[in-house]
Amino acid sequence: MRFAKFGTALLTDDVAASTRFYVDHFGFRPLVELDWYASLQHPQHPDCALDFTLRGHEAMPPDFRHQKTAGALLGFMVEDAAGEEAALRAKGVPIAVPLRDEPWGQRRFNVWARKAP
């Protein structure tokens, strides 16, 4: 398959809050902001989009539009995982899994894109 761009669309109950989180903490920029939909782009990755659609909106397929978003994990590969984790902690972003070195060679941490449970 040959495609021009790649995007991920997530359902949310609060499009504005979801948008602000990725703009404030990860450097995304809004391309489109409506009350029911937002499309974000990162300046370093113009061919990738992160979209949020209000749960229940008719733009989504009927069998999908009312589902809860669950199990979505977005991965951002960075040069300095320790520095990025420290910066996000300093901003008050809840850390789901602290920085760790995996046996397969990956250094990673996870954050909650919402308030920690």
Automatic annotation (TrEMBL):
Gene3D superfamilies: 3.30.720.110, 3.30.720.120. InterPro entries: Glyas_Bleomycin-R_OHBP_Dase, Glyas_Fos-R_dOase_dom, VOC_core. Residues 2-117 form the VOC domain. It comes from the Bacteria. This is VOC family protein.
